[in-house]
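Note to self: the last two entries modelled the partners one at a time, which told us nothing about the interface. This time every component goes in together.
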Amino acid sequence: MKKPIKIVTIGGGSSYTPELIEGFIKRYDEMPISEIWLVDIEDGKEKLDIIGRLAQRMWDATPYDVKVITTLNRKEALKGADFVTTQFRVGLLDARIKDERIPSLHGMLGQETNGAGGMFKAFRTIPIIKEIVEDMKVLCPNAWLINFTNPSGIITEAVIKHFEWKKCIGLCNVPVIAMMNEPKIIKKQTSELNYQFAGLNHFHWHKVFDENEKDITGQLIEHINEKGGGTPVNIYQAEFSLELLHSMGLLPCGYHRYYYSEKEMLEHSIEEFKKGGTRAEQMKEVEASLFEIYKNPNLNKKPEELQKRGGAYYSDAACECISAIYNNKGIRMVVSTQNNGAIPCLSPDSIVEVSCIISAKGAEPIVWGNMGPFEKGQLQIMKAMEECTINAALSGDYGTALQAFTINPLVQSGREARQILDELLVAHEKYLPQFKGKITELKKQGIASKDPVVVDLMKNGH
Amino acid sequence: MKKPIKIVTIGGGSSYTPELIEGFIKRYDEMPISEIWLVDIEDGKEKLDIIGRLAQRMWDATPYDVKVITTLNRKEALKGADFVTTQFRVGLLDARIKDERIPSLHGMLGQETNGAGGMFKAFRTIPIIKEIVEDMKVLCPNAWLINFTNPSGIITEAVIKHFEWKKCIGLCNVPVIAMMNEPKIIKKQTSELNYQFAGLNHFHWHKVFDENEKDITGQLIEHINEKGGGTPVNIYQAEFSLELLHSMGLLPCGYHRYYYSEKEMLEHSIEEFKKGGTRAEQMKEVEASLFEIYKNPNLNKKPEELQKRGGAYYSDAACECISAIYNNKGIRMVVSTQNNGAIPCLSPDSIVEVSCIISAKGAEPIVWGNMGPFEKGQLQIMKAMEECTINAALSGDYGTALQAFTINPLVQSGREARQILDELLVAHEKYLPQFKGKITELKKQGIASKDPVVVDLMKNGH
Amino acid sequence: MKKPIKIVTIGGGSSYTPELIEGFIKRYDEMPISEIWLVDIEDGKEKLDIIGRLAQRMWDATPYDVKVITTLNRKEALKGADFVTTQFRVGLLDARIKDERIPSLHGMLGQETNGAGGMFKAFRTIPIIKEIVEDMKVLCPNAWLINFTNPSGIITEAVIKHFEWKKCIGLCNVPVIAMMNEPKIIKKQTSELNYQFAGLNHFHWHKVFDENEKDITGQLIEHINEKGGGTPVNIYQAEFSLELLHSMGLLPCGYHRYYYSEKEMLEHSIEEFKKGGTRAEQMKEVEASLFEIYKNPNLNKKPEELQKRGGAYYSDAACECISAIYNNKGIRMVVSTQNNGAIPCLSPDSIVEVSCIISAKGAEPIVWGNMGPFEKGQLQIMKAMEECTINAALSGDYGTALQAFTINPLVQSGREARQILDELLVAHEKYLPQFKGKITELKKQGIASKDPVVVDLMKNGH
Amino acid sequence: MKKPIKIVTIGGGSSYTPELIEGFIKRYDEMPISEIWLVDIEDGKEKLDIIGRLAQRMWDATPYDVKVITTLNRKEALKGADFVTTQFRVGLLDARIKDERIPSLHGMLGQETNGAGGMFKAFRTIPIIKEIVEDMKVLCPNAWLINFTNPSGIITEAVIKHFEWKKCIGLCNVPVIAMMNEPKIIKKQTSELNYQFAGLNHFHWHKVFDENEKDITGQLIEHINEKGGGTPVNIYQAEFSLELLHSMGLLPCGYHRYYYSEKEMLEHSIEEFKKGGTRAEQMKEVEASLFEIYKNPNLNKKPEELQKRGGAYYSDAACECISAIYNNKGIRMVVSTQNNGAIPCLSPDSIVEVSCIISAKGAEPIVWGNMGPFEKGQLQIMKAMEECTINAALSGDYGTALQAFTINPLVQSGREARQILDELLVAHEKYLPQFKGKITELKKQGIASKDPVVVDLMKNGH
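The predicted structure of the combined assembly is written out below.
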């Protein structure tokens, strides 16, 4: 018999943790957990305690004897871990508020994953994930790292390629949502269809086949602009051109709207910002109310309210992935892992998001093959943007950060983009030790966001 | 409900057919067949009739109502087929006798798959498989072509890449045998282990992992020189160097003995030839006695004697593959299919033999990733040899045939190799219309094998 | 002795032709021309006659006996040609006016080479260049095609890769201008420096070394924002970020301003348009006045006024290239030719603009080697854009045209971009037979530019 | 004015040095040398002194004031060097005798560059060249390293790729000889023809064009089996198949005989060995007599006798290359340098032997483009063999050495090849510190060559 499992969750104080706990409870019979360690930092202590108590109540309401331990001491938690999940957010939602407000005020997208915001999230996260990997090399050298900290693909590439921790898988809920919702539209069960995905995190396409080996992608394209399709609820549904999609013969992910309808997505984002501030600010309110609910000492299951956030199914996917590894299941999932040739137009050592077989060996990608020039060109520039972002995050080199900003299709390059880069650097000073020299110089030049919300956050030590 | 299946077997008069029939009987409940058409040519009519009657008796001994039809009219058979299997041998075993005797008499390997013999088998087969594909395009445009005519990888490459029939899968029993025998050696069940294969037909390697994700390839290497391992019985077991295999961290297939122990394999082959003639001649005797057994009107199952031939499990693998497609199973099998990046050091449109997921969509390769220079260099030259062979088979160009002979590691290049090439061309004149011009020229120069067995075969119209 | 040369210039009525004539006169001693055929179409007859007379007067003022023949009969001209130069403009400047006005009125770049305008220029030109190549295959199968019709790289790719005319070289004046102007800035002679260029037409970078093998690129970067550098006069000099350029260690071409300073370039372009209409309209005036000058029966040399147009040095580069081929010179020039590995991150059969050795064999690229992710990602998307453009031009498929528009970094994708695409299709109906079906459909939907200038041009049959 | 040049020649006691000196004398006017340092080791002191005195006499007979300094102190010599040439032979000709005798006695090729001997030469040389590069990094960080120690391509790859000394060029006389001799056959001057080479050292092909851009390769193929062609005198002229060469459209180098006529080359080599011992033994005699000539105090120029050795024109090529760098000449030469895409089927960071432009920047390869499967497959396995050889030389891993032996087309793999490997390891113990562990083990097993010549050499401390 295999030994019971020790799970460690970095960023355990996240409002998503109850979904993760629920996922483990559902799968206890196939995957007997002994301990769940929830790790967070000083700033997140209060939330961590609330989550820790709720998580323990959830387990106590089951027949299973599982201990939930909360700690601020990461090293202690990691010792002997079997699976480490990462869902932390450096600088919390306050950092995301800056990521989104500063570009928006300059009339650009503050998009938090692939846009300016996402690149800064990577700049802040990569130094921390490096420390985590270094700890793991010493304290739990056989553990798997299941990452769902965004930008998930970039972080996974840093971990596998740069910090050389091969046992890492990146997760995302976007493919999960597509595979849950699309079949309904054509009155099918997910189990009747074959899905094949390929691309990068938040930038992938898929093809769908029915049980008679017929390619029904074209049929699904016809429905793509309907409500309730595969696009996550947090993305504005600018209309896709069906002629464009048919010429590819592929279904895009929801995030492709930012690339195929740049203009509308930007206009809508600016409009929303003017009406109600950034999505991060809305999230902060949602989170506050979630934590009020979590505090209820009678609550012993995941509350319905959590489902409504954008990140639903993320954690369940993580539990499924962990179980597939533990039980050597050989099931098909879409995850971020090393390319190894699955997408021949990208380097074999790049991290890609593709349909994989998940077993005790980890994720084995299923090949996608050659792409047409349209998908290929976009994919290659997005991977290049990811590489520039990682290079900048590792080196702290300003020119390289500028490369990432210039090459990113969601940033309109030029003087204003540089201004945004500069203001973001200064605004995130606390979390960007690698850029210290440049930030000092920028501050001397008087660079600073004039946005009252940002000014206020910084006054309060963020 | 899906409609019942029509199977067509080209080369239906083969002595292997009873295994195929047995495989379909075993799987009838999951794969209801209505008709099996066995197709052969005039020269094979007698055998075809014997096989046809045995096959019908085998079905009649089951509760299932399946009709076996024998015919010399390929077009009639192909009409509306769902699956077409190819196991024909152009020129029958007599052609193989020439393939093996002519090189052997010049002190070279007559190896019938990757050696001189295999290249000539390809020269003879490619024009015929082209005709079959052309028929299929008209008569059964949705059918799958399951090829196990050797050289299986080369024929599959011709079909998919040159004749553009994408629904083709090539099969081989070598991986099957390895996965059946190796686990026993270390007291494991096949189901407890994860196998990953990559390479070309008769030229692949594999890695093995246990259920705890541990790479146990090294452990299996230690046993590789023992009897009863994964090497097919028809290959002489020259000793592998364990140091060489450990430096790769991979298990070779049995055919690698020809490449890692060239000298012993050649010496043994010549010795065997001197003692007992070629393997083809032995096979001819085995076949004759098998057909005597098949004639027995009371025989209604696959006779034990068949199992002892080299090609066991081939046909069962074919049935399993067909069922996996028909039932959209998503199981793991090792087949020849389009690379699409699974082995990044070969072109995405090359045919490779790799671990795949087999479902209604066909074969989806699982990536293997980068290779070390040793495996990579050998694989690249073998693929180049396959390409030269196909180019020569298609063009009938002598210089290109010479390229194939020169680059093939199992042929020692030079004047004598050219002599072998020339004699084989003349000896196979009947089946090589594409080389007509060159053969006429060679005959004028007086080129002809002086071997009495070859002379005799040719006198008799072969 | 080599036989005297027959030159054919398609689009011979161009205002640039006098520079070409001057270039041939300068080089007569090394390259004895017998005849120059200037070919044009009915619409350009008047200009052709003016140019033809001027060209003949230019030769008559030299000691050389060279005949200038003007004709509307392309086939007659091509017969036995040694070198064919192409500098035609399908639809003349009126077409360019539409290319630039329609996007500008929607607030987008009408950039005539890599932007929306450039893609439409390719849509119009590719069917015509195909006819020219087909004529050449019959009438002058050994001739060289020296293309300077824009978008030069795309047209050259169509000719070499799709129409399989290998003896084609694409030319551009941008590298010539850089190599003429940059050395002066640092008080050097061009001959003292080693230049290496790589990229695509209007999208390349270069490195510069001095005679002591020292890389002085960084030194030149420091001067890049000064007036009089390597940027063609027709491009607005938005400021480059020196930090960005230093992080690459490369000098960009002037057109990179559109990619590194998207926002300023767009704003400036719209502003200019509001002030003075499009550049095409200005060009039309310049041309009219040039032709007035050309009419002067006493003029027998290239007038000074021509030098001031954007395209200076183009024709001289063409003459130099022709002489290098004719005289097997082995000199170094920057041209568009087949990659063949010079830029490993692009396909070997792509057309690229790189430093080459020009000799009787044509252009042999000098390798550039691997690129960093920033340059690589941009180059790959630009090449993909070129490929989508060619695919759309060849197929007339609307979805593919939309791919080209969506992937082009100078077009902001979405509903408005589709509107621009649609209006341009309708506006250019006369020159886009391959898109006939879609244009008919668009017209039924009432798509049409409402711009009075465009409306007027169309009324007059353009 | 540039400063005068300091040349350092490692292995200065070589019998080839007078050609090098002659080359520098011829070019003094364009390349003013101040000092030539000849470096050797204790074992070569006597020869070094003889060469040093001859070299000084050669300079003294010219109007130029150049000082020749001989030394056993490499570090002292390297200080401030401008160009370092390497032509040393670890273990001298005695080592080569072992390299050739041991395989020959087992009936295999002792070929000293690409065969078993060449791999051992690499095993011995790579540790030493590593030390030289380390010294250079400290003592002459701007110097160029011009290598002509064999196997020249492998050594150059070790220097550039593994020891990261980019300013290194590898030289060989094989292309020089081809370009000198071939034109005569067709009554042309070298200067009238365009040559393009690509491949690896001792494994390359070339195409030839005349001054009218006509490919005359086929015409030269017709003459390839005649005496006095491009093959170095030390290679047995087994007949090439013209049909094979025409199918490629390429001229092979002389060493290709080993690959296209394996059998004859092996038989001839064994026969020669039986008649007259190894080529190394013959060379040793030639050398002894050369040094007798060199001792003559009246000799002050390169003696005719040197020309007759196999390595002629090597040193002159080195001088020409040095001058091209020093004078920023931009001339065309065939050298070993980093691929960078010139041969797309090999990695951009591999070292290849190709036509290059040589200037102050070093060697810039001219692209070759895609290859057919025949050339491609062979080239890829040869590069893989080189990589395995370097990996074994660096690691001292026996399994990896076995990889190199197994993959090498000139070694027939198997038990006997392993015996050769083992005997060579033991025989070269003195020069293979990296294999110490394995050699000790082999000696314990009693492995030793029984050849009296080898036994004798070892007794004498070699």
